[in-house]
Design brief:
Shape of chain A: globular
Mean pLDDT of chain A: 92
Structural class of chain B: alpha/beta
Order of helices and strands of chain A: EHEHHEHEHHH
Order of helices and strands of chain B: EHEHHEHEHH
Structural class of chain A: alpha/beta
Helix content of chain B: 40-55%
Number of helices of chain A: 7
Low-confidence stretches of chain A: none
Strand content of chain A: 5-15%
Largest sheet of chain A: 4 strands, parallel
CATH topology of chain A: Rossmann fold
Strand order of the largest sheet of chain A: 2-1-3-4
Number of helices of chain B: 6
CATH architecture of chain A: 3-Layer(aba) Sandwich
Oligomer: heterodimer
CATH class of chain A: Alpha Beta
Largest sheet of chain B: 4 strands, parallel
Largest interface: A-B, 32 and 35 residues
Radius of gyration of chain B: 14 Å
Number of strands of chain A: 4
Low-confidence stretches of chain B: none
């Protein structure tokens, strides 16, 4: 694992497509595009009091990725670990109608969804790279 | 009677979280769509009023991936009446040695686990719905 690390905390919201896309984009960055440099933080565990997740967020820079403009991931990070170093709200990328449309099972994801997830991953990577350059 | 709330943790780190998420979607979007619905856990845990109102004093089933039980604890804290706390780790004991996949994609074995688990939870939803109707 790289010494330079960035945490990404994603919402995975269960009621809308934005949750699918934030989750998929974050996983792609972690597993593929910036493997070893990015650690995903589990939002429910983080909020439920996961010491490991909260300590990581205090020590390393964190980017929040939210599926809708309620911005649960961003607000939670600010509440428990201080400021986020970068925030992505998918509403800004795709508009409210798309992010608030019905959640999709991973079984039913189509090419259009994967293209949007790629866009999310690209935006995360831009912020990750900036933070890694700064360190 | 209000729909029964079935709420997963959707943990992002492992296949367990994805199985919890997909199992619940199978229940609420397909098997029990007239009797059950899900609620965004992130909204519940951040205290979003609309989300908390949806679970408070309502019949809920939680589906957690790991023993941390984030969904169960959060729904309980929000005032939900939890009738069952399912854990994917327990379900996996019925499928020892199977590779279920990752937090991104499930294997065929992973989807089989989802389908069987969803059937079990859907039966529970039907039972709770009948009990609820009988008390109205």
């Amino acid at each position: 694992m790289s010494e330079k690390q960035v945490g990404v905390i994603s919402c995975s919201g269960e009621e809308c497509l934005g949750g699918n896309l934030s989750r998929l984009g974050t996983r792609k960055v972690m597993e593929d595009l910036r493997e070893g440099k990015v650690v995903s933080l589990c939002l429910p565990l983080y909020i439920a009091g996961g010491d490991e997740e909260r300590d990581f967020a205090k020590e390393y820079p964190v980017i929040s990725v939210d599926g809708c403009n309620k911005c649960c991931a961003k607000r939670s990070t600010e509440k428990y670990s201080g400021e986020v170093k970068g925030a992505i709200d998918l509403t800004d990328l795709f508009g409210e109608d798309i992010v608030l449309s019905k959640v999709v099972s991973a079984r039913d994801l189509c090419e259009e969804h994967y293209k949007m997830a790629d866009k999310v991953a690209e935006e995360i990577c831009k912020k990750v790279d900036l933070l890694l350059e700064d360190k | 009677m209000s729909k029964i709330k079935v709420i997963p943790c959707s943990g992002i780190g492992k296949a367990l979280g994805l199985i919890s998420r997909e199992t619940v979607l199978q229940v609420t979007n397909n098997l029990s769509k007239d009797e059950a619905e899900t609620v965004c856990l992130a909204h519940v845990v951040t205290g979003d009023k609309d989300a908390v109102d949806k679970v408070k004093n309502q019949i809920c089933i939680t589906v957690d991936g790991c023993p941390a039980l984030c969904a169960a604890k959060s729904v309980e804290h929000a005032g939900g009446i939890i009738k069952a706390k399912y854990r994917v780790v327990d379900e996996m004991k019925k499928h020892r040695g199977k590779d279920a996949g990752t937090g991104t994609t499930l294997t065929d074995a992973g989807w089989q686990i989802v389908d069987e688990f969803a059937e079990e939870i859907s039966k529970h939803v039907t039972q709770l719905s009948k009990e609820g109707s009988n008390h109205e």
